[in-house]
Specification:
about 575 residues, alpha+beta, 6-stranded antiparallel β-sheet, 25 strands
């Protein structure tokens, strides 16, 4: 039977869950009554966008050359399909054959972006306008796409895309882009600054957290990143005070920029400069997802686009300026991205505990190769981690039992000095020192596991391996395990089981120590429930497994004899006793 404190913790967990779900539903989830309609609209509008992409593109600027109706060409490789348009002279969409999006159709990258990959843009006020007028030329081979744009002043811009030719390596998602500016006229030309696009990224699912839609850039061994919320006006919650206005464009200057990238939770497009010493500026902008308009959702869903800012260029008559880039458009596979070099695996954005995340990802993949299932790999990996931490857990349990034995004396001191907290704390510390008890000893396993938890949190949130992986009732380990909805709230079963096992574990743990510390521990189920409830179900699977292992460990050790409290002697006194017991010297 649970005691009063346990029931209070359960009540706090329920209140916290309902409060978090209200916030999440208000800020992140589309209205449930429109979800089915939106899903159907998505599929029909994807087809329309593939046929008439001009309807979702930015207004085209007035150009010296006539505006052409886009002509498209599709090129296939073993892993992807590439859709090119000759008006913008860029890559409109990439279809990944081995990955599924909404409605179980092959996932597409950049299909919702207002700017094709490899497009050039010019700045007009606070907005960017795509440079058009490119014509698709006869192809040199089936793996090369060639565009050309000529102006009366003599400027000719050419783009040469080379499709992936290798298989079974990271290069199977990598294209090459050669961009050439040539002055064929008789007078010098001063070219403006062009914005070279690496395309755009949008959430794969309407429920994906907006913080995963990001723009990244890499310079001198360090990645800098922003998400779509950077462009929103800054507000102080509750008070409604605006700290800064909405920002239309992100521009940064920094030496030796190697690459820029737009990323969603599990996919990315990376534009890498082969001559990075010439690139010192990047840009990014936000756009609204055209498939989920504001009229059918509780919030706007945004995508992000970005790329390099090419510096103004002076071309003498007959001069040519050529730049080379590589374009990676595919899944965020840590091992594959690492083989590409230039720190491109940084787009995983593992955060502070990235070393922990990288080790856990490596271990999970190794176990999956042995067991054949990612859920089994996560469970076995959790058991291995708990086995390594077994001595620490036993030490903590013993420390908590010693604290429990001290509880009567501690309660006497609290009653005696209830009007003098400073004196009470001094006497308690003397008592701990007298019996060699560490009041924080019971927290040690939790402190050790926090880096592991956040390492799992970062890794499981971006590991492409988990997408579409099944386990029992869970259809996708990379998504919440929603089994039903109740009054617009998703019922995710595994996080609820996880919170229940945490409360069960605390009810079995020895009681003792500071009551304030105990109350703080009873808030942990609420905190972890909020972290895991709308996150990848793989995280809740990990934490539930480790809770069950800890419960089994507590049952195994609960019947061991209680430790005996012994006064801890001062060092000097211990040395004197040791000398008395030592044999006499001859």
């Amino acid at each position: 039977m649970f005691d009063r404190t346990t029931w209070i913790a359960i009540g706090c967990s329920i209140i916290g869950l309902l409060g978090w779900q209200w916030y999440y539903s208000t800020h992140y989830l589309p209205a449930l009554e429109t979800e089915h309609k939106v899903a159907l609209e998505q599929e029909s509008r994807r087809t329309a966008i593939s046929e008439e992409s001009a309807s979702v593109r930015k207004p085209l600027p007035t150009l010296p050359t006539p505006t052409l109706q886009p002509r498209r060409a599709t090129f296939d490789t073993a892993k992807a399909e590439y859709l090119f348009s000759d008006n913008s002279g860029g890559l409109e969409a990439v279809t990944l054959f081995l990955h599924l999006g909404e409605q179980d159709h092959s996932l597409q990258l950049n299909n919702l972006s207002p700017t094709p990959i490899g497009a050039l843009e010019e700045k007009s006020g606070d907005t960017l306008q795509t440079l058009t007028g490119f014509v698709m030329k006869e192809q040199e081979s089936k793996n090369i796409v060639y565009f050309e744009r000529s102006e009366p002043a003599g400027l000719t811009i050419t783009k040469k895309f080379t499709l992936p030719q290798s298989t079974g390596s990271p290069q199977e998602y990598t294209l090459e882009l050669e961009l050439t500016f040539e002055n064929k006229g008789a007078t010098p030309l001063q070219l403006p600054a062009y914005f070279l696009s690496c395309g755009g990224a949008t959430p794969v699912h309407a429920t994906d957290a907006s913080t995963y839609t990001r723009f990244d850039w890499y310079s001198r061994g360090k990645m800098t990143t922003i998400d779509v919320n950077w462009f929103s006006a800054g507000m102080i919650p509750i008070l409604g005070i605006e700290t800064h206005a909405a920002r239309p464009l992100y521009e940064v200057k920094n030496p030796d920029i190697v690459w820029t990238a737009v990323t969603s939770q599990y996919f990315c497009t990376i534009l890498t400069a082969q001559n990075q010493e010439e690139h010192a500026s990047v840009w990014a902008a936000r756009f609204e997802d055209p498939l989920i308009p504001k009229t059918t959702a509780l919030r706007s869903i945004y995508g992000i686009e970005g790329g390099f800012l090419l510096e103004p260029l002076h071309l003498s008559p007959g001069a040519t300026h050529r730049e080379h880039y590589t374009i990676f458009a595919g899944p965020k596979d840590f091992a594959a991205l690492g083989k590409l070099g230039n720190g491109q695996q940084s787009v995983m954005n593992f955060g502070t505990f990235h070393l922990v995340s990288e080790f856990l990802l490596w271990a999970m993949n190794c176990l999956k190769n042995l067991l054949g299932n990612y859920a089994a790999a996560i469970i076995v990996l959790t058991l291995l981690i708990k086995a390594v931490l077994w001595p620490i857990q036993n030490q903590a349990t013993n420390s908590m039992k010693r604290m429990q034995l001290l509880s009567p004396r501690m309660n006497e001191l609290r009653a005696k000095y209830k009007d003098n907290p400073t004196k009470m704390n001094e006497e308690l510390m003397k008592l701990y020192k007298q019996y060699g008890v560490n009041p924080l000893g019971g927290c040690l396993p939790m402190l050790v596991q926090i880096p592991i938890f956040f390492g799992f949190y970062s890794m499981l949130g971006t590991a492409i391996e988990l997408r579409n992986s099944h386990f029992l009732w869970i259809h996708d380990l990379s998504q919440p395990d929603t089994i039903a909805h109740l009054f617009h709230y998703p019922i995710n079963l595994l996080p609820l089981i996880m919170a229940g096992t945490m409360i069960w574990q605390m009810s079995l743990s020895p009681k003792g120590g500071d009551p304030a510390q105990q109350r703080l521990m009873y808030l942990m189920p609420v905190v972890f429930l909020c972290f895991c409830y709308n996150f990848a179900s793989a995280l809740a699977l990990y934490w539930t497994t480790q809770n069950l292992f800890s419960i089994a460990q507590l049952y195994l050790t609960r019947n061991t004899p209680l430790p005996q409290l012994k006064e801890s002697l001062p060092k000097r006194k211990r040395r004197r006793i040791s000398k008395r017991k030592s044999p006499n010297e001859n």
